[in-house]
Design goal:
Blueprint: H1 31-93, H2 96-113
Helix pairs in contact: 1-2
């Protein structure tokens, strides 16, 4: 516990002595000590910010990889849809028979999507 010399007079009935305690001198903090404390605090702050930045970069890389993977899937599906549309276009241009076959396929596909009705006995 530090007690400045000016306040020591109120201890022990105003005698100004601190019996049983070692003599403590008040030394002002030098500019060099202040700079040392500043650099220690600044270094700790810099290290914490560097770690946070590294974590942020790792998550950004994972995010970009995920977006790239999704873009590839979308591209593959778009190619598949384009191929299907080319197939439909060829069938329609074949004439009425192609159009009729396409209509029958669409009806079959539509009925397979509907829920089946159960008969009561």
């Amino acid at each position: 516990m530090f007690i400045p010399p000016s306040d020591a007079s109120c201890i022990n009935g105003g005698s100004g002595t601190l019996e049983g305690y070692p003599q403590v001198r008040y030394l002002p903090m030098t500019e060099l000590a202040k700079m040392d404390i500043f650099f220690v605090v600044a270094t700790i702050g810099f290290v914490v910010l560097a770690i946070l930045l590294a974590v942020l970069i790792v998550y950004a890389i994972k995010f970009v990889r995920t977006v790239t993977r999704i873009a590839e899937i979308v591209e593959d599906e778009a190619t598949s849809i384009r191929d299907d549309m080319d197939s439909v276009r060829e069938k329609v241009t074949d004439g009425v028979n192609g159009l009729l076959a396409l209509l029958i396929q669409a009806i079959k596909a539509g009925t397979s999507l509907l829920p089946s009705k159960k008969r009561k006995k």
